Structure formats: structure tokens, C-alpha cells
Amino acid sequence: MKVTGMACLGSFGTGTRDLLSACAALPAFGFAEGRRADTAALSGLLPARSLRQTDHFTRMALLAVLKAVEDAQDESGGDFSGGETAIVLASGYGPASPTFDFLDSLLEYGESMASPLAFSRSVQNIPAATLAMRLGLTGPCATVCQWDNPVAPALAIAEQWLREGRARRVLFGAVDEYTPFLAETSARLSARKDACAAEDRPRVPLGEGAVFFCLENRDKSRFYGEIGGIEPGVEPERIDLENIASPGKDLQRKSLPGDARRRASPALNAPADFPVPLWGEIFVSGRVPPEWAARPGVIRALPAYGNIPVAQAFDLAVFFAQAETFPGGETACVHFGRDGLADIVRAAGKSGERAA
Amino acid sequence: MDIREILKREIIKELKLEDVSPEDIRDDAPLFGEGLGLDSLDAIELVVLVQRNFGVALDNAEEARQAFASLNSLAKFIESRLAP
Amino acid sequence: MTPFAVEPVAASGMGLVCAAGCGAQAAFANVAGGETAVGPPPFAADNLYPVFLCARPAPANPPAESSRTLELALCAAREALNSAQIDAEEIPKLRMGIALGTSVGASLDFLDFYSRTWAGAKPPLDEIDRYLFSSPAAALRRAFSCKGPALAVTNACSSGVDAIGIAAAWIRSGLCDLALAGGADAVSPVTYFGFASLRLLSTEACRPFDARRSGLSLGEGAAFLLLESAASRRRRGVAAQSFVLGYGTATDAHHLTAPHPEGRGLKAAVEQSFAQSGLGWTDLAFVNVHGTGTKTNDAAEAAFFAAHCPDVPLSATKGSTGHTLGAAGAVEAVLTACCLNRGMLLPSRRFQEADPEIGIAPVREAFDISGRFALSQSLAFGGNNSALLIGRGETCLNPQPAPPAG
Q1: What pLDDT is recorded for position C3?
Q2: How many distinct structural domains can be found in chain C?
Q3: According to CATH, what is the number of the domain A227-349?
Q4: B10 with B42: CB under 8 angstroms?
Q5: Residue C312, domain extent
Q6: Which residues of C touch B57 (CB under 8 A)?
Q7: Beta pairing class for C178-185 and C221-228
């Protein structure tokens, strides 16, 4: 699948430039704890009154999808409304703040007088449905919600919908939300002595954000690169470490050798303090086994954007954010699940001509 | 407090009309469509809001439709139900 | 957009647990002629809105961290694996994925913990551990030690159909060789009071399509098809109990909680399932409708059938199972497959009087059918519409079982 448009926002800031700046601070945190994504720009895109019932989760998703569509339309144009565009939305917790708003109303006003508006917003597929209504999309629409990596299986849906001819393009999003309750609860989990359920993740404070990719199979003159080689649920010991970034046949192998990477680095249009491009390396997230965490060339970028179940999508965004300035490499984003199985998503940057 | 004032305050708060002040809501202007711009999702919240604040149930769809014509008609409906 | 035609994907096993019964056979028999348990939910003092609950599925002693949704899912999944003749020891060697539709199962569903935190306490983290442990797709993959994708689809009430449609594509593309595809949901206080706040719950057991219908009744349940590639079935020498021939899904983009009044997205979803299967209305023995018992859902479905195929027999089974939300599409897919295999259309229990305003009525009594294909459809919150085209199993078409692998 070609990535023809991309946009992101989160605790780290707004846009891929802010995302890369946050990565520059690695392994230190690239975001302030408790910082919320800034969705004020939405009021310039949509009438303020029309947003009054739109919760923060959906606002993040809406801003990211509108910016990704704008990005994808830059040169190619194309009609994004109607039945040819699908939506796939991945989330770990789903719309958290509407869920807690509903629980608040239930506790405050009693069982018979809880808020129906809050309940309807708390249903997991309502944010994606709101996007479909806003964009006038009548194609397929799916929401994947599970805290233990929703990203890889959701990307597999996008891939199969394009292959099956259900859609000409898929707007693929990954969104998760910070709430004080979730932050406090994950802090309590990570402080617990037996951290069996706590995962590796909560040691990084809770973050939030939304990332959207516009995915298409057609040839386009302008695109960031490709996503493919999606393998959910693989035993880590079966992964060929030497060739992990060697993609499936749907991706071309175009890896830059290490010193070429370093030579190219000063010419990058990347932030001045960006140390080594996170490029051609392996991104890991989830419950990373110690032998993987210690491996050279393995990047755990979670501290850049915060503890977030959809980390794998942000890993991809970090990779493609550099594709603009540093083309022609490839990566594998590996998420380790609670049961020890790995979800692998491979990506390759577009080679050559897109470099500035 | 006057029923109309409570209604205005609660509608602004619960239906998240953050850019509206109580004085902006005219007693005789339509609540839905052209007037305040409420929609069918707001209508269900409005039913709950009335029950919460006044203990008045709006279970009959036709009654609700008439009561929701304007703030005035809603206030009158509540008054009629509260009257001993 | 119209998808390309595809090869059918076989189901070599199925499992079902719902208020009508634990086990596909028992549930089918009770929908056909028995009674199902309807009563107050365990967390509500009154019986204002009755719900459809299962007899607690065996086996007993679930771990403390397990959720009701997960226990229901495990019960139906074990039945599906058994009926496909798959031994537990064999599973770790197979590439088997899990695709599960759910709503409650993926929710931040820890009301007690939340309310105690809300009141200023620091409650123990047990309920949070349960939420983490029982994330249903991942928990099933862990419970059976399978290797393959774990996917929780949360498209509200169409999730069960979507999980099966998505998993069928996994098998076709070789992402895995087998997949437990279905859905599971318990009745939780959060959804119960949520649906109550939306004034969508019926004060009596629901009556889909009836003139006096006044809302839906929640139910708990889980159901799975065990989808399997042709190569894997040949190797194991097992017959197909059913086939998934086509899947469609489309969005209304009309209203966040109400269906499009003419079923715009539903039409697109059904047409997609026809395109994938190469079949059409005249090939269908019947349609298992969504039929929740709400005024708007049943009216939208009726308008759709009146416009496109007024003569196809309709079967509405939520009067026997309640609305099992994320499981509903899977529960109905299994019931649909059973109908085709037994040559009998299930009655629409609790439907008594046709609604003159919608003009279309489901079947009241069971009757014999001879067709090989049927459609099962689901409409959801958010305007999601999904349809599954299901074919009769080869155990009925061909009495000779497939030869065992050499």
C-alpha cells in the first residue's frame, strides 16, 4: 500500500516536524506529561457550532484525517467523498473521555437519568462514523479496539479492502486519548510491585494523539513510501533478525548502508538537533523482550510520544516523516503482545526523487 | 429560579452551546432546526435534562414534539405538569 | 465500490452460546420450539427492561481476572474447535487467527472501580487487571496458544458479521490457515443504562417487527465459525459445515445512532456480498434480518426489503436471543448456517402482529426450506451496515465425507 498522505498530532505537538523533534530527545521524553493534543485548528476548518458535541478523541481524529486528506490531495486531487474511500480506525482504549463522561452522569444523576449523548459518543465506532459523516464517505468503515496492539490487525484490514476492490483508498487512523483517570490508573499499575499486568509501557507516562495515513494501491507520482509485509501474531523466535526489514514481495528492498546514512544525515532537512535518523532501523513497542531491547539498531520511540496503545502507528509516522528528506530505506515495526507474539508491519520509503 | 432560566442554563451546559449565553436564547425562537440549531440527538438529552431538573417525564413522542417547539412551549409544558 | 468475485471460504466448525441455549444444537432447538430465559439483569433491582441471559456456561471456576464476555467467548470457541475436530494440543502448531466482534468486551468497563475512585477512594486494581487480562481476541489467542492475528472489531452491532467477513479474507490471502471468527458480549450495567438513557430498551421481551414493538432487549452470547482453508481441510480430512460466500459492509453517513430510513448503506453492503459470491436475490432461501425491535431499525429494514425483494422469507431471531450487540452478527450467522443445513427456517418468536406502517413481516412459524444460500445482515450504531452470504455445508450437499489426508 502506498502512503499518499499523512498527518499527526499528539502530546508531542502538531505535525511530523514536531514528531521528529520529539524523537530527537530520545531516550529522554519528548513530551510534557499530561499535555493534550492541540485541536484548535479544527475551528478554522469546520464551523465551531458544528463541533459542539464532538469530543476530544473525535476532534483529534477529525483534525488528523482532514490534514491527511489535504496532504494526499496536494497534487493528485481526487474525490474523497462517496463510496470509494474506506475508513479504518485503530484504538487501544477507544473514546475514553465520553465513556467516563457517561459514567460520571450515571454516578451523578442516577441510573434512570444518565446522559444519552455521552453514551452514544462512548460507543467505539462513533468517532469513525463521525468522520464518515463529515467527509461524506459511504464506503466500508471499521473500528478496531483492543489495548494490546490494534494497529497491525487494522492495517491488515486496510490492505485486504484495497486488494478485494472494496475501496480505492483507505483513510487509516490510530487514535488514543489521555484522561487524568487513565493516567492515574496506569501510574498505579506501573508502581505496583508485581508488574505482571502493568506491561513495559506504563513506565513512560500516558500520552495521546492521532495519526492518519491515506493508503492507496495505485501508482502515484507523489507518495511517502509503502506499507506491506504485515504479519500479525508471529513467534519472536521465528523472526529472521538479519532480514527482518527485508520486506515481502510487495515491497522493494532499498536499504541504505550505515555510513551512507550518516553521510546523508547533515544534508537532511530534519531538525538541526536531530542526532541519527531513525531510518532503516527496527522500531519496537509493547512488551519488548530484553534481548530485543538490547539489540543495536532497535528503537523504542515510545518516550517521544508517550505511553500509547497505538504506538506502532506512530512508529510508522516517524519513519515516513523522514521519507520526505531521507528516501530509500526500509524498516520493520514490531509490537510484542502480552502473550509474547509479535505483530510485524514493514515499511519502505520511496526511493530517490522525492528527496529535497 | 424561573423555569425558563433553569432551562437556558442547563441547555447551554448539557448541550455544550459554549458560544451561547442565556440572553441569546429567545423564549419564542425554535429550539430545533433554524432557531438554536439543536438536532435529534440533542432531543433525547433534552428529555433527560427535563426529567433530571423538574422530575417531569416526556414519554409521549407527540407531547415532546409540541413541547420542544420553543423554550416557551417547553416551559409551559413543565409548568402544566408541576401544577398541583 | 463493488468488490471482485471470490472463492467461498469454508467453516469446518461452529459454536454458539446464547439465552436460547448453550451449544448450537440446543440453541437451534429452543429457537425453533422451546423457551428462552428472560428476566432482570443481575445488577438491576427491578425488571424494568428484561434481558436475555444464558445459563452460566460450563466449565466452572473461571479465573478471577476473567470477564463474563471472555467466558462466553471461550465456551463458544471450544464448541467450534470440538466440532471441527481440532485437539487442543494441535493448536499451537497451526496458524490460527482470532477475529472477534465485541462491544462490551472492548469497553473501559469497570464501573465499580471507577465509582470508588470517583468517590475519592483508591480501590484495588482487580477490575483493571480483569479489563487488561480479558481483552477478548488477545485472551482467546493466549488461551488456545494459537499463532496468528488477534483482532477485536468494534463496529457496534455489526461487529460479529464484520469479524467473519474480515477473517474470510485472512484465509483467502493466506494470513492464516484457520480462524475463529465470530463475536461475544455480556450484558454490562454500562451498556444497559446507556441503552436505557437512549430510550431504546423495551419494557417487555422484544418483539421484532411487531406492530406493538417498543424497543430492543439486550442479551448475552457468543458465537464462532471456525474458518479453514481448503488445503488445511484436505490435510485434516474434515468436511465443510458451512461456507462464507460473500461479505459486504458500507456506511450510511446519515446519522450517528439511527439507520438511514431507506437502508442506503444496507443496500450497498448486500450488493457487495452478492458481488463477492456471484449470487443474487433469487438464489436466497431466506434472510436473517437484524430485527432489533426498535421502531426505526425494523422500519428501515422493512423499507429496504419492500423496495428490493418483497418476497424473500425473513427470519428475525432476536425474540429468542435478545440483542447480543457485538456477538449478534455471529450468533445469527451460526443460526443461519444451521437453518440451511437442516432445511428448516426458524420462526420469529414473539412476533405476533404485522405492523401496517412497515408492510413487511417475518415468518411466524418454522417451515421447511430447500435452498442452499441465505443472507444474514446487521445494522449498527454509527450507520454501519454489514451482510454475510452463507452457503449450506457439504455434509448436506454430499453425504461422502472428504477422504482423510494420506
Answers
A1: 95
A2: 1
A3: 3.40.47
A4: no
A5: 10-395
A6: none
A7: antiparallel
